[in-house]
């Protein structure tokens, strides 16, 4: 499953921008301190923050294969979007 922009940014630029902006997800989450629910909430919050970020203004395309990984990502994206006020959804 991939979240991809729907416009023509050069691939190298896009990858660099995504890596730079998603560094907060790479910060360690202690598995001793956080259970699966808290980890999922952290991921949903990160997706929500990315969606509301003014640094990107392109639509998201979320691919779904129906597998377990794809299902989890789709669930996280839907949870994040449902937590955004309808007036701020595009």
Write a brief structural summary.
This protein has helices spanning 11-21, 23-26, 36-52, 68-82, and strands at residues 3-5, 60-62. By secondary structure, the chain is mainly alpha-helical. It has a domain at 40-61 and 76-90.
Global morphology = globular
* String of helices and strands: EHHHEH
Structural class computed from helices and strand pairing: mainly alpha
Helical segment tally?
Answer: 4
The stretches of 5 or more residues where confidence is low (pLDDT under 50) are none
List keywords for this structure.
mainly alpha
Task: Report on this structure.
By secondary structure, the protein is mainly alpha-helical. It has helices at 11-21, 23-26, 36-52, 68-82, and strands at residues 3-5, 60-62. A two-stranded antiparallel ribbon has the order 1-2. The mean pLDDT is 76.
Topology:
Elements: E1 3-5, H1 11-21, H2 23-26, H3 36-52, E2 60-62, H4 68-82
Antiparallel strand pairs: 1-2
Helix pairs in contact: 3-4
